[in-house]
Amino acid sequence: MPMLIDHIDAIARKKQRDVLYVTFNPKHSDDDDSCDNLFWHWEGDPMRKTTCNWLTEHHINWQMCGHIANENSMGGYYGQIYLDVPFDENDPQYQQVRDYLENPDGTLRFETVGFWYLTLEYAMKNAHHDEPGFWEKWAEDF
């Protein structure tokens, strides 16, 4: 049976709060075109494995998630993960995650890892997606 992965905005609406998530991307460089998104497999990405292991070892709850839902396109899963940690500078778990993913100046520590914050206000723009049958009707009309 296929696993259901929620979009990050749906998670924010379920939690009724702002949320944090992490994305992973292949390294792009002018001299290496072998890391094309079409051929990149998140399952084998070493930074994703390292990050997920670090989160688990530090008792940070996480789960797979999709990007923000978009009615105009359908995309695949690229390894994104939701972090069940509040965006609160005073929260010790948030500080731990921030310090792992960011440098002291706020820049990202790892070139292929993105650290994102999604507000509940923004997530509510897609609240109509939560209506019963919305995605089934959308699929019929796609």
CA radius of gyration: 16 Å
Which structural class should the secondary elements be placed in? Answer: alpha+beta
Low-confidence stretches: 29-35
From the spread of the alpha carbons, the general shape counts as: globular
How many strands?
Answer: 4
Q: How is the main sheet built?
A: 4 strands, antiparallel
User: How large is the count of helical segments?
Assistant: 5
| H and E string | HEHEEHEHH
**Strand line-up of the largest beta sheet:** 2-3-1-4
Whole-number count of domains: 1
- Assign a percent range to the helix content: 25-40%
Report on this model:
- The protein is 30% helix and 13% strand.
- It has 142 residues and is α+β, with helices and mostly antiparallel strands.
- It has one domain (8-141).
- It has a 4-stranded antiparallel sheet, sandwiched between helices.
- The two termini are 24 Å apart.
- The model is unreliable at 29-35 (pLDDT under 50).
Give the topology, please.
Elements: H1 8-15, E1 19-24, H2 46-57, E2 62-64, E3 81-83, H3 92-101, E4 113-118, H4 120-123, H5 134-141
Antiparallel strand pairs: 1-3, 1-4, 2-3
In short:
The protein has one domain (8-141). The chain is 30% helix and 13% strand.
